[in-house]
Amino acid sequence: MHVHIVSGDGEAKFWLEPKIERANNCQYSKKQLNNIETLVEKHYDELVSAWRQHFSG
Q1: What is the pLDDT of residues 9-46, one digit of tens each?
Q2: What's the rounded Cα separation, in Å, for the pair 21 and 17?
Q3: Per-residue confidence band for 49, with pLDDT thresholds at 50, 70 and 90
Q4: What is the pTM of this model?
């Protein structure tokens, strides 16, 4: 289970399980990655729910 983050500044992928962990990064700064990871942690339940709903069928 993972999430992709894409914007004009870059692209990253974070694993959601077994724990939140950065899988890759393209052009985001360390500060941006820290902010993104904070948002992933804050919205973890929503992200997991959306992922399961999307891939359940």
Answers
A1: 999 999 999 999 999 999 999 999 999 999 999 999 99
A2: 8
A3: very high
A4: 0.91
Residue 8 DSSP code: T
- pLDDT of residue 57 exceeding 90: no
**What's the length of the chain?**
57
Strand 21-26 vs strand 10-15: parallel, antiparallel, or unpaired? Answer: antiparallel
Map out the domains of the chain as residue ranges.
2-55
- Which residue type, as a one-letter code, is found at position 15? W
- Three-state helix/strand/coil letters over the chain: CEEEEEECCEEEEEECCCCCEEEEEECCCHHHHHHHHHHHHHCHHHHHHHHHHHHCC
